Amino acid sequence: MKSFKSIPGTFDILPDEYSSGGDTTAPSRMWRHLEEVVHTTMGLYGAEEIRTPILEPTELIARGIGALTDIVTKEMFAFERGSSHYVMRPEVTAPVMRAYLQHNLAQRGGTQRLYYIGPCFRAERPQKGRYRQFHQFGLEVIGSEDARADAEVILSLRDILDRLGLRQYTLRLNSLGDEQSRPAYKAALVDYLTPLADQLSDISRKRLETNPLRILDTKNVEERTLLEKAPLLSDFIDEASRVHHEQVKALLSDVGIDFVEDPFLVRGLDYYSRTAFEFESPLLGAQSSIAGGGRYDLLSKEVGSKQVVPAVGFAAGMERILLACAAENVAQPAHPGVDVFIVALGDPAMTWAFWGAERLRQAGLRVTFDLKGRSMKAQMREANRQQARFVAIVGDDELAAGVVQLKEMETGEQRAVRLEDIPTSITI
């Protein structure tokens, strides 16, 4: 019979950590811990969760990411059903803005702080920390032009990283100016790079024609050297954007957030404006980015709004963050174990164990028992494997007396107690 394995670029999340193809996948409890940190932190900021479909209209994503980007031209899982065109979402910002507009969330009043957690899909070449199915969490603050919104988005992400135990990261920060700033800068950058085109890589030469700002993202050492004398975006931004940027920096400094100003940090799409930022881990090598974001005031018009809806947000790669946690040896949450493992000896006791376990669960205890009818020795080994704090041993004598032998695994202390007294006999 043919055996099946997960599709390349995807992976299983198991109860235990495991390695496959050179990558180590964190156990499910670490994923859950990260999700709980996100939920808790977002709650502190008054953010509310939003869940959008995996499937979105292809045109929405093409408009939201950019029709000429690699994601849209090469990396989308797209398909047709009849005359309809769909894509498995490669990111979540455009879907969130679509939902905001579709459901008239502005009518709720005030600024909408919307956060999400979920899978995304890109048909790119699998490599360490980059997969065809990957997971993101993010925050979108929609409806405010205030610099405090930009700073708050950055602060919330910093708080998540800190609560996870990450310490070795760098925040890079820049301003992209307004919708007039970037065309002027783009023209100056093209004028500078065109005479040097023969020194650029094939990818950068193509970007010079389609999306020249993306060249600033290059990791190529020779190209980084060429860019040292390139014009700077900071010399082209408008005065209002400059003031906004200074306000963001002052707010971050006020709460003790260190940052590095990076004039080459840009976004390649025209709907981005003003703030752009990235968090990087130096322990992850060339692909060091773990999260990033910025202001995207003009996205709303790209996806159907008649007027500009100011917005700022971030997206964080969960796989990238978990890799950073592993690189920093961040402690994983302990295996939860169970409170009580029932060791049942004989058929009547095994039947009783099913009922007794449910009684204890109703009292709030984590309880399990053996399902194979094994020997007492084997059941005790299973209790150890499940890291049970207590074992409740029951056989014919215990059933007749209406008690169990309750054994504390750490100390070995054992005593007879009634089932209904177990919840008050142990400390949860």
Give structural attributes.
428 residues; alpha+beta; BirA Bifunctional Protein, domain 2; Rossmann fold; 2 domains; 8-stranded mixed beta sheet; 5-stranded mixed beta sheet; 15 helices; 22% strand
What does this entry look like structurally?
The chain is α+β, with helices and mostly antiparallel strands and 428 residues long. The protein has 2 domains: 18-178 and 237-327, 2-Layer Sandwich (BirA Bifunctional Protein, domain 2); 340-423, Rossmann fold. The chain has 15 helices and 18 strands. A hairpin with a 2-residue loop joins strand 5 and strand 6 (84-88).
Give the CA-CA distance, first to last residue. 47 Å
Helix count? 15
**Main sheet: strands, sense, barrel:** 8 strands, mixed
What is the CATH third-level topology name of the largest domain?
Answer: BirA Bifunctional Protein, domain 2
Please compute the radius of gyration using only Cα atoms: 27 Å
In short:
This protein is α+β, with helices and mostly antiparallel strands. The chain is built from 15 helices and 18 strands. A hairpin with a 5-residue loop joins strand 17 (404-408) and strand 18 (414-417).
